[in-house]
């Protein structure tokens, strides 16, 4: 496989830190998106989550519209829309509206998980069989977005005939088979589910079938990346997201909190368990983080890298993305 320069993109989980509000989070999301655009990032994606007081991206398509309205060139999309929570027709109409307002800038990433707990999934009127119907729902959505649907009894207006790139998202090998069979680009959530990354990429590439949408396989992986001027400062910033993810593991969910002293802030057993979940998290000063990200690219040979920087302080978060963008300018490749 020939050497390839790699572009960076942003995943924003619209986190509401301790002491903050969703309104403040949305302001910071708009500011980060404009910052990412100026720094040369390729895409800015938002993810659908529900019933989480620390994440404010439940109405994902509305946030995508807000971000697109505050930027001019960066691609904006979903990482992702949890399709079984929604009727395919409604998704086609919503993203058709977005793509009409912001032509050639909207991405539609689709996932099959509920993006929440089972009780909340039930409140969303999610059919327990929805995950099994995911492939059919993707095809139904494609039908509504196709120009050939113009003579059908049910049509997506706006949406019909628009070239909206559809991505299949996943955290396991199931999604890899589907993305390959449908000839669609594939995005893997290795920032929180690293275990099957290599198997999923191999399955996707081996089984990929060219389609009208994509001629060759295209893989994007998402990782956590926290950069600062020094390794110690970055390690301190990273204590916030480590505590957050530990809460997910232990069932004690919390908002993103202020950083702590990185020395002895977590029990060694907790740290060991956490590392299984956040294996692909790159933390450090410019040299350390460049070396680690470069090694990840060489091993995975992904076509694009999406980064999320869960940092408590907004200015430190902006600076983290600035340092990471500098790595791209200098040339990330495999």
Automatic annotation (TrEMBL):
Give the protein's recorded name.
Luciferase-like monooxygenase
Any Pfam family the entry gives: Bac_luciferase
Similarity remark: To bacterial alkanal monooxygenase alpha and beta chains.
Q: Which molecular-function annotations from GO does this UniProt entry contain?
A: oxidoreductase activity, acting on paired donors, with incorporation or reduction of molecular oxygen
A GO term from the CC aspect: cytosol
**Which PANTHER family does this one have?**
LUCIFERASE-LIKE MONOOXYGENASE (PTHR30137:SF6)
**What residue stretches are annotated with the Luciferase-like domain?**
10-295
Q: Which organism is it from?
A: Flavobacterium noncentrifugens
User: CDD domains given for it?
Assistant: Flavin_utilizing_monoxygenases
Where does this protein have coiled-coil stretches?
none
């Amino acid at each position: 496989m020939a050497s390839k320069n790699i572009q960076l993109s942003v995943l924003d989980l619209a986190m509401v830190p301790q002491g903050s509000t969703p309104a403040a989070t949305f302001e910071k999301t708009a500011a980060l998106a404009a910052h990412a655009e100026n720094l040369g990032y390729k895409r800015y994606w938002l993810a659908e989550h529900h019933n989480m007081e620390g994440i404010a991206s439940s109405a994902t398509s509305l946030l995508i519209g807000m971000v697109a309205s505050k930027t001019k060139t960066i691609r904006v999309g979903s990482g992702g829309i949890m399709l079984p929570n929604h009727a395919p027709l409604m998704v086609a109409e919503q993203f058709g509206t977005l793509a009409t307002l912001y032509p050639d800038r909207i991405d539609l990433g689709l996932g099959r998980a509920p993006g929440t707990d089972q009780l909340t999934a039930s409140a969303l009127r999610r059919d327990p069989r929805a995950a099994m119907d995911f492939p059919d729902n993707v095809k139904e959505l494609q039908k509504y977005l196709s120009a050939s649907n113009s003579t059908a009894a049910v049509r997506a207006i706006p949406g019909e005939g628009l070239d909206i790139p559809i991505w299949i998202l996943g955290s396991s090998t199931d999604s890899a088979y589907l993305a390959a069979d449908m000839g669609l680009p594939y995005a893997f959530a290795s920032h929180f589910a690293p275990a099957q990354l290599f198997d999923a990429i191999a399955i996707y590439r081996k089984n990929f079938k060219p389609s009208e949408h994509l001629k060759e396989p295209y893989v994007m992986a998402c990782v956590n990346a926290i950069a600062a001027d020094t390794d110690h400062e970055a390690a301190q910033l990273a204590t916030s997201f480590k505590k957050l993810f530990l809460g997910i593991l232990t069932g004690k969910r919390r908002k993103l909190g202020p950083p702590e002293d990185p020395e002895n802030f977590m029990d060694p057993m907790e740290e060991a368990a956490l590392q299984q979940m956040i294996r692909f998290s790159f933390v450090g000063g410019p040299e350390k983080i460049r070396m680690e990200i470069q090694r990840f690219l060489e091993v995975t040979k992904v076509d694009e890298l999406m980064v999320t920087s869960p940092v408590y302080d907004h200015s430190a978060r902006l600076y983290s993305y600035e340092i990471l963008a500098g790595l791209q300018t200098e040339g990330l490749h495999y």
